[in-house]
Specification:
The protein has 13 helices and no strands. The chain has a single domain, classed as MetI-like (MetI-like fold), CATH 1.10.3720.10. The radius of gyration is 23 Å and the shape is globular. Helix 2 packs across helix 12, helix 5 crosses helix 7 and helix 8 runs antiparallel to helix 9. The chain has 267 residues and is mostly helical.
Length: 267
């Protein structure tokens, strides 16, 4: 267990990685059985059959409006995430130019550094007042909470880029755009992709916070609506679904980085 040079077969590694999930499911099932034995009407820890029923009602049965709630909520949250991620990706160029050009470094660095320390949730009431309760305020919350960190990460990677390679490219008559987009950006972009991947949890967190306070549809909205009725058989499947979506995005990004940027795995 504590051997530094231990090797493990693929099958054993897979079984070992599944072990914590199995333990959690077993502990949950045991706790649910104990609580329902003491109180058949217990709502805190629903049984497996209650979870399946809650998932069935959310994902396969239409509500009074004729909507299937889980898919309507997923689509509403997905649109907000897509718009937010597009803006976050565009913010990479701010960090790129800050790291490359002294003018933009002196103009923007301290401002972005200070802005990054402002708790985004503390600004949420201001966003609601300025932008209203619509989509703009929710997207602004996500971008304000994550984009400054991504900008600073890009800035640091660009600053750490070997300056001799830039000098060599300029000596060979490379233009400024060629230096930026053909030499520097292809080398630092996959590194920042990892930062975006690791910050995706924060993106989801700000999304849920915005939806919980002002929305008519969305995964976070639904969780806080059914919370009033202690509907844990709905809340738990929703939480698992959100986690699976986030894990799926993380997996796709890791897979793309691994296949697209082979040199990064050998660095």
């Amino acid at each position: 267990m504590f051997k530094l040079n231990a090797t493990m077969g693929r099958r054993n590694a897979l079984l070992l990685s599944l072990l914590p999930f199995v333990l959690v499911i077993f502990i949950y099932g045991f706790a649910a059985k104990q609580r329902h034995a003491a109180n058949p009407k217990d709502k805190l820890i629903p049984s497996v059959s209650q979870l399946i029923d809650g998932l069935k009602r959310s994902a396969f049965e239409k509500d009074r409006k004729g909507d299937i709630r889980l898919w309507v909520d997923t689509w509403a949250s997905g649109k907000r995430l897509i718009f937010s991620m597009v803006l976050i990706f565009l913010s990479l160029f701010v960090g790129l130019y800050m790291g490359l050009f002294p003018f933009w470094d002196h103009l923007m660095y301290k401002f972005v550094l200070f802005f990054d320390k402002i708790p985004a949730l503390a600004v949420l009431p201001i966003l609601f007042i300025v932008f209203g309760l619509g989509e703009t305020s929710k997207i602004a919350l996500i971008v304000m909470g994550v984009a400054p960190t991504i900008m600073l990460d890009m800035y640091l990677h660009v600053k750490a880029f070997p300056r001799e390679l830039i000098t060599k490219a300029q000596t060979l008559k490379a233009s400024t755009n060629e230096v930026i987009y053909k030499i520097i950006l292809p080398r630092v972009f996959p590194l920042v992709l990892n930062s975006i991947r690791l910050n995706f949890k924060a993106v989801v967190l700000f999304l849920i916070a915005g939806e919980a306070l002002a929305a008519t549809a969305g995964l976070g909205y639904r969780i806080f609506v059914v919370r009033r009725y202690i509907a844990m058989e709905i809340i738990i499947p929703y939480v698992i679904w959100i986690s699976l979506l986030a894990f799926g995005v993380d997996f796709l990004l890791r897979f793309w980085i691994k296949k697209r940027y082979i040199w990064l795995n050998k660095a």
